[in-house]
Amino acid sequence: MRRAFSAATIVAALALAVSACGGGDAGTAAPAQSAATDPSKISGEITWWDTVRPDSEGPTFQALIKEFQAKYPNIKVKYVNVPSDQAQNQFQTAAQAGTGAPDVIRSEVAWTSQFASLGYLQPLDGSRAVENESDFLAGPLSSTKYNGKTYAVPQVTDTLALIYNKRILAEAGHEKAPATVEELKQAALDVKEKTGVNGLALNVDSYFLLPFMYGEGGDLLDVQNKKITVNSPANVKAMASVADLVTSGAAPKPAIQDSYANAMTALKDGKAAMIYNGPWALSEIYQGKEFKDKENLGIAPVPAGSVKAGAPTGGWNLAIYAGSKNIDASYEFVRFMSTPEAQAKVAKEISLLPTRVSAYDNPDVQANKDVAVFKPIMETATARPWIPEGGQLFQPLLEGYQSLVGGKTTPEDMLKKVDDQYRGIFKDWS
């Protein structure tokens, strides 16, 4: 789950949350339409905004589109790849204007309730888009709900793990992945000393800070009690650990811009031994020269802090624009793309984790070692808040992370500033 939330995104989100007129209000969106008696007779053209990497992941989804169009020859699918760091803002802008929005969007789990609260998504309860709802994993399914209604279908789920180069770690005297943040620091220092390679490449992205926070027992919010908890002693300790990884030399000072691409390149080229990343990254990592032999890639749970090993819950949903002129065709497309068979194909080819229980019984899924490693990590991942403001939490945290690793702020001052920004979003929270 690649994330890079721009300042424009957060400003647009706040503005749209106030005006929210393009798609109507979430309580008045058109009810789910009935599908035609014979779905194969449905016709029309739909546009799908996809957010995967076009080179390593895109071909699998385009192949599924061809399968769909063979089954539904009267439905034409226009495939548009929109970078994941731009899709949220672009969809909001188009939906607000009432023109240019796609019929179907691949929506990050944190965006779904926000889009629904603004009235931009079609309710799906009772439609053909939602097939055998009881087969979906509870965690991913919960991200599709808003005010008791269903506004999306879970496509893939994910979390974070420690991904590492087995050969380099072994050369540094480590046959196993580090299990704690303290061990992570020592292993990274040993790699640097004994091999000359950087031990850990940090990704300066808000999502990648969460394991450190969760590991110390911290969090961003206490939703049930409407409390902002980001500025806590637990999180101060977590941010001090992150800063120490850089100042100690366990991780080189990361680039503020393009840090995701830089960390991935360092791992693929053997210039860094370890990174934090998720299953979506594997298809790209295997293209690197260090992992032509896939057995050289190690995957382990994120190192634990003093409280636990805490990876965040992520993933992507398929949602339908409330203003779509081809609702029935969109229902069929969302249903097809979220079937156990489609999810099994995605898991087999690019190791993205299914959201359906039955998909894990598929022999192709069971044969994928990467899915087998990630599945138990995902099952114990820490839930994020599925609230309309969820997509607005990352930009303040990102700015703080950039200042922290850039040596421009302390953990205490960083979190105080993030807390202040959160209070501008949650005005009635304590």
UniProtKB/TrEMBL annotation:
Annotated signal sequence is 1-20
UniProt cross-references to InterPro entries, sorted A to Z: SBP
Q: Which Pfam families match?
A: SBP_bac_1 (PF01547)
Q: Which UniProt keywords apply?
A: Signal, Transport
PANTHER family per the record?
MALTOSE-BINDING PERIPLASMIC PROTEIN, MALTOSE_MALTODEXTRIN-BINDING PERIPLASMIC PROTEIN
Q: Which family does it belong to?
A: Belongs to the bacterial solute-binding protein 1 family.
Q: What is this protein called?
A: Extracellular solute-binding protein
Q: Which organism is it from?
A: Streptosporangium amethystogenes subsp. fukuiense
